[in-house]
Amino acid sequence: MDLPFAESYKIKVVESIKKSTRAEREQWIQAAGYNLFNLRSDQVFIDLLTDSGTGAMSDKQWAALMQGDESYAGASSYYNLKEAIRDLTGFEYFLPTHQGRAAENVLFSALIKKGDIIPGNAHFDTTKGHIEFRHASAVDCTVDEANHTETNFPFKGNLDLEKLETVLKKYPKEKIPLIIVTVTCNSTGGQPVSMENMKAVKAMADQYGIPVFFDAARFAENAYFIREREKGYENKNIRDIVREMFSYADGMTMSSKKDGIVNMGGFIGFRHQDDFDKATQFNILFEGYITYGGMSGRDMNALAVGLYEGTEYDYLNTRISQVAYLGERLREKGIAVQYPYGGHAIFVDAKAFLPQVPQEEYVAQTLAVELYLEGGVRSVEIGTLLADRDPVTGENRYPEKEWLRLAVPRRVYTNNHMDYIAAALINVFERRDSITKGLRIVKEAPLLRHFTVELEKA
Same domain, yes or no, for 234 and 201? Predict the structure, then answer.
């Protein structure tokens, strides 16, 4: 008989988690303003709010952490990380930052000015926030297949080349400081970008004289999907695929809290010294000296190890197979999710789940609250709340898709937990007709409101 699936690790340390009653959860979520970010962690049974910084580090990472060099300048930990980044990505220059949005802040301070246009594939919340904070505009050039939940298109993170060229033709290159390619593309469901698409985007960018930067938080998961889905790569080593991916970029930002499997950290990689030099002053201003940049030596050591562990095929197969396992449990009960499954999360189509709840009542957030009430599972809305208001009109921006994201931490939960999550959401699905009203905003921030918004029942 065929051998069954088994995780590519064994558990050495455990952390207790506590169940709660529905009555307790009703009280807690109301006090939190129906915003799951405002919940205390001990009020959550299974936490799928994010896969960022929530993974479990390995024994080798903990060992490296204990050998961290905390020298202010020129620490050996910095050079350990520099060598790992050069080996895996080919980028000779890098700046450490304390996390991904800090990397965006430094890079965009160096490159983006008021009135600029930044094309890309479904820029994520902090990326768009940093762009709009600088009074520039993010233009989405994602393929249309990304919005077709059940279409079995293998690379729903791809940029539509016709859309991209329309933008490049419309604006002078002085107004387009960079093209952003997000790998994998979080906002479309953790969907990968094909190697063919990366290569074509870079060729077009070179034709128009515009640099390409990857938002590479989940670059290893993207490489795994290329190996599994793209012809000609089925027998390639993951790290060889990674190196080819980055050969089609002039630089990258990295939230190391994802595929670096660490709890804090990020960096910017550069191919060209002039880009590095432009960003250096901002790194010193915002993050710290260029050889630590907001990271401790021990965290740089742990990241250097994590980048290699995160690009091992067996690890990636375990991680992505667990996400797919959850997706299968939901699809077999008729729940519409983004398919094929992404790498880090299952994205539930909230409008298909709760068609009777108006979009202006924040349907995905409504579903997230119901899942928490049902089973103590914390998830996150990728929909109208996250889309923010139009900076010109002040009106809500209504995205085509309202997603409930179930982001699975790395090396943390078992498939028994996936079964529990699925059962909780299926229970909500079975009583979905009784959910007729959503939520309304009581208080919101002018930018990135979903982190701190307060709501009430509509």
Answer: yes
Q: Is 217 one of the annotated active-site residues of the chain? A: yes
Is 450 tagged catalytic? yes
47 assigned to active site: no
Active-site entry in 5, 72, 437, 443: 72
- Quote the strand ranges of 260-332, DSSP E: 266-270
**CA contacts within 13 A on the Cβ side of 314:** 6
135 is catalytic: no
Residue 46 near residue 266, CB atoms below 8 Å = no
Residue 207, pLDDT score: 98
Catalytic choice (202, 258, 344, 351): 258
Catalytic residue, chosen from 51, 116, 140, 215, is 215
Tell whether the model's pLDDT for residue 448 goes beyond 90: no
- Domain membership flag for residue 325: yes
Closest CA to 289 of 82, 69, 108, 71: 71
Among candidate residues 123, 130, 401, 450, the one labeled active-site is 450
**Which residues fall within 8 angstroms of residue 272, CB to CB, at 6 or more apart?**
93, 250, 251
Residues making up the chain, counted from first to last: 458
* Residue 228 domain boundaries: 59-309
- Rounded CA-CA distance 432/428 in Å is 6
Catalytic residue (one of 47, 51, 116, 125): 125
**Residue 387 — very low, low, confident or very high, per pLDDT cuts 50/70/90?**
confident
User: Are 47 and 20 contacting, i.e. CB atoms less than 8 angstroms apart?
Assistant: no
What pLDDT score does 391 carry? Answer: 86
258 tagged catalytic: yes
Determine which one of 64, 103, 122, 217 is catalytic. Answer: 217
Domain co-membership, 227 together with 93: yes
**215 is known as an active-site residue:** yes
Contact 124, 290 (CB under 8 A): no
The domain that contains 200 carries what CATH number? Answer: 3.40.640.10
Pick the last residue of a domain from 309, 330, 348. 309
Q: What is the pLDDT of residues 162-218, one digit of tens each?
A: 999 999 999 999 999 999 999 999 999 999 999 999 999 999 999 999 999 999 999
Domain boundary among the residues 309, 339, 364 is at 309
Active site residue 423: no
What percentage of the chain exceeds 70 in pLDDT?
Answer: 100
**Is residue 30 one of the residues assigned to a domain?**
yes
pLDDT digits (tens, 9 = 90+) for 239-290: 999 999 999 999 999 999 999 999 999 999 999 999 999 999 999 999 999 9
